[in-house]
Amino acid sequence: MTVTDSLLAFSFAALVLTLTPGLDTALILRTTCAEGGKKAFHAALGIDCGCFIWGALVALGLGALMAASELAYTILKICGATYLCWLGLQLLIRPRSSFSHNDADISSHGNWFVKGMLGNVLNPKMGIFYMSFLPQFIPVGHSPLIWTFILVSIHVAIGTIWSVTLILSTHFASAILKKSRVVRIMDMATGGLFIGFAAKLALSSR
Predict the structure, then answer these.
(1) Alpha-carbon distance 118 to 103, whole Å?
(2) What pLDDT was estimated at residue 151?
(3) Greatest CA separation found in the chain?
(4) Distance between CA atoms of 190 and 103, rounded to whole angstroms?
(5) Confidence category of residue 92, pLDDT binned at 50, 70, 90
(6) Running DSSP on this structure, what letter comes out for residue 122?
(7) Mean pLDDT in the chain?
(8) 145, 136, 147: which is closest to 204 by C-alpha?
(9) What does the pLDDT read at residue 140?
(10) Running DSSP on this structure, what letter comes out for residue 111?
(11) Count H helices, E strands: the chain?
């Protein structure tokens, strides 16, 4: 995979993943409705910071692991492919029929930047996902450390644009995400994407 191919493929994947309703989307929508756009943007920046923290942890560990041995890389590849396949099957077999953001914390107390950041940092699935998802987009012969930060930066940029869009169009976005058909289609599309990348990762070489 060339550098251009890696960037384009990851950007597309990150876009689909960002648009799929999840905890981050719920937090932004609820914060906007309950606290206003300014605090919602603070929460979005906190989410971005959490992504970079996980990116740093994964980059350091991933670089050491990939440089260690062929066996270590193979184990990482198999684990990552299995995890992505499991996520994809879950979404395909049991897609949601509704998107509820009632679980998002809407308390008016506390720092919303910290809340957004902790929401990501304290979620181990974020680290597992980065560890399993990012390696397949790192071009052969390039630094895993540098490329992990490049890919995370792309993910953060797309996520920030999406957060701002949600903040500016809260009522419209909420109405769309209440439609069961939209939620089911997004879940199934994401599930198919996960399985496709799982297969690609399993067949990749170091």
Answers:
(1) 15
(2) 93
(3) 51
(4) 22
(5) confident
(6) T
(7) 79
(8) 136
(9) 80
(10) -
(11) 9, 0
